[in-house]
Write a structure and sequence with these properties.
- 68% of the residues lie in helices and 0% in strands.
- With 93 residues, it is mainly α.
- Among the domains are: 1-33; 62-93.
- The longest helix has 27 residues, at 2-28.
Length: 93
């Protein structure tokens, strides 16, 4: 009998949680345009005010979040190495 009550609680939780999540994803996907990054919103605006135009970057990371992903991977690798050598890093001599 307790197993049956647990199944009903799980079903009720799904009936409440899933529509709430669907609504939240739908609501946040209604943005009228994509957000501007710091480069477009601040740097390019100030450069145009001072008479300079934006140039293409020396190393083009492409469009999207490729650069953020690279920082994520570098941070994860650095965290792994730092954790692996934690005792050597904090050892008092």
């Amino acid at each position: 009998m307790p197993e049956r009550k647990l199944k009903w609680k799980i079903l009720l939780l799904h009936m409440i949680l899933l529509p709430t999540l669907y609504f939240a994803f739908y609501f946040f996907s209604l943005a009228p345009k994509s957000w501007e990054g710091v480069d477009e919103a601040v740097v390019e605006k100030i450069a145009k005010e001072h008479g300079r135009e934006a140039k293409a970057p020396l190393i083009d990371p492409g469009s999207g979040d490729l650069l953020l992903f690279a920082f994520l991977v570098a941070g994860a690798a650095g965290g792994f190495v730092g954790g692996y050598y934690w005792r050597r890093l904090t050892r008092k001599e």
